[in-house]
Specification:
Order of helices and strands: HHH
Structural class: mainly alpha
Shape: elongated
Number of helices: 3
Distance between the termini: 23 Å
Oligomer: single chain
Length: 71
Amino acid sequence: ARTLAGFTQREIVRAAPRLDRDDVYPAAILKRLAQEGLSSITLPVEHGGLGKGFTEAVALFEEVSVGSAAV
């Protein structure tokens, strides 16, 4: 099963040094998060989101920040 921790390791940790070094906006990573359905975590399901609460959103942000606080 694919997990957010796996995504963080595959996509974010790998890119973090380049993002920091080149001081670039992580557009590609944010696009991938959206493709995985993770960019609209608190948006209601009927509007295309996951319908989760702020606790789940904070957990997502925390996991992503493990890879890079810039993302």
